[in-house]
Amino acid sequence: MALAYDGAIQNLIDAFSRLPGIGPKGAQRIAFYLLGAPDAEAQGLADAISEVKSKVRFCEICGNVCETSPCPVCQDPRRDRGVICVVEEPKDVMSIERTREFRGLYHVLGGAINPMANVGPADLRIPQLLERLGDGSVTEVILALDPNIEGEATTRYLAQLLGPLGVKVTRLASGLPVGSDLEYADEITLGRALSGRQAA
Ligand SMILES: [Zn+2]
């Protein structure tokens, strides 16, 4: 008995298997679903993938994903330019936006300090953050990192780094589900953690 399918179908299964959160069985299910789906639906998925790769870029200021750089948040004159909320990933910007508690700007680090995965401060967008603080117009930096070990290490590192610069450095209040990602906190809990932020 063959252990793998021939050619195209196995390629597709392998491609889905490499995606986060999808195991070999899930990959096989999706591949066969697409095989049986109308052409337009399968083509729609293929087009969505090419479109995201050709159109989406990272904002030159905050590092968030966008189709125009600077991104709409960085360009919005109604946003408070004196406050920057530092997050790990672009998806965290969406989590904070959903709380409707924040009207400042963002800075996406692109990850968190994680010695096990060989991610150190030099791998994050920290120089770009320091540059944004250079002209003194930012009065507060909110550290909104994931409530886990890596997020905590990054929060401590940034608090020490930014403290001497004379900018107010705060962090989310405790109360978020510990050991998880920001995205798993519901809007109300995250909104409370944001409004109840404390000195870092
Ligand atoms: Zn931006």
UniProtKB/TrEMBL annotation:
Task: Enumerate the residue ranges forming zinc fingers (C4-type).
Answer: 59-74
Q: A Pfam family matched by this chain, by name?
A: RecR_HhH
Gene Ontology molecular functions: DNA binding; zinc ion binding
Q: Where is the Toprim domain?
A: 82-177
Q: Mind telling me which InterPro entries this protein's record contains?
A: DNA_Rcmb_RecR (IPR000093), Rcmb_RecR (IPR023627), Rcmb_RecR_Znf (IPR015967), TOPRIM_dom (IPR006171), TOPRIM_RecR (IPR034137)
The protein's superkingdom reads Bacteria
**Keywords, sorted A to Z:** DNA damage, DNA recombination, DNA repair, Metal-binding, Zinc, Zinc-finger
SMART domains, sorted = TOPRIM
SUPFAM superfamilies, per the entry: Recombination protein RecR
Q: What PROSITE patterns does this protein map onto? A: RECR (PS01300), TOPRIM (PS50880)
Q: In the UniProt record, does the keyword Transmembrane helix occur?
A: no
Where is the secretion signal located? Answer: none
| Single Gene Ontology BP annotation | DNA recombination
Family per UniProt?
Belongs to the RecR family.
Supply the NCBIfam families for this chain: recR (TIGR00615)
What is the purpose of this protein?
Answer: May play a role in DNA repair. It seems to be involved in an RecBC-independent recombinational process of DNA repair. It may act with RecF and RecO.
Protein name in UniProt: Recombination protein RecR
Give the species: Bifidobacterium moraviense
Name of the gene this protein is made from? recR
